[in-house]
Fold FMN reductase.
Amino acid sequence: MKLIAVSAGLSTPSSTRLLADRLAESVRGELVAQGHAASTEVVELRELAGDVAHHLVTGFPPPRLAAAIDAVTAAEGLIVVTPVFTASYSGLFKSFFDVFDPAALTGKPVLVGATGGTARHSLVLEHAMRPLFAHLRASVVPTAVYAASEDWGSGGDEYTDGLPARIRRAGGELAALMAARPAPAEPEDDVTALERQLADLRFD
């Protein structure tokens, strides 16, 4: 199974990339525990910023962007993480998903995450990110993961799960959705398709 994590972090190192990596590790661990072979790949949007702008202007993706779009489209599962800018996802994050065909993510299992300096912005997951992927007809897992600065290294308390627990729960949910999806059918070659058409013919 192929898992793609899209990180819209702009700095190096980036807490957004760190959250994407932790989520990917959790999902991969759950899949392996269930007996599934799993591989992960991270798409760093900061490396594609110029290509995204070029595509929006010309309508044609440069090769690196085209490869990233193909990887996201073909993946069995998707993790998307953005920093919070002006109480929403970043412009680069939105622009990347603006270049996709509207039906490209239909039914794809998606885990949404975000990072910010304060917990006050955690609702960005519900008022911005979840509606975006619902519009793209993806299957968004119930648990979304927000990481504020104070969440790193926090174990939570009796009322609130800490970041590691939320990551484990979300990872389990995405792994379950990925494992439940039917495998894509192998495309028939031209000869097989012709034989099937001939077999379906009925003669009087």
About this structure: Residues 2-200 form a domain with the Rossmann fold fold (CATH 3.40.50.360). Strands lie at 2-7, 39-44, 77-85, 88-89, 109-116, 139-140, 145-148. DSSP finds seven helices and seven strands in the chain. Residues 87 and 121 are 6 Å apart (CA to CA).
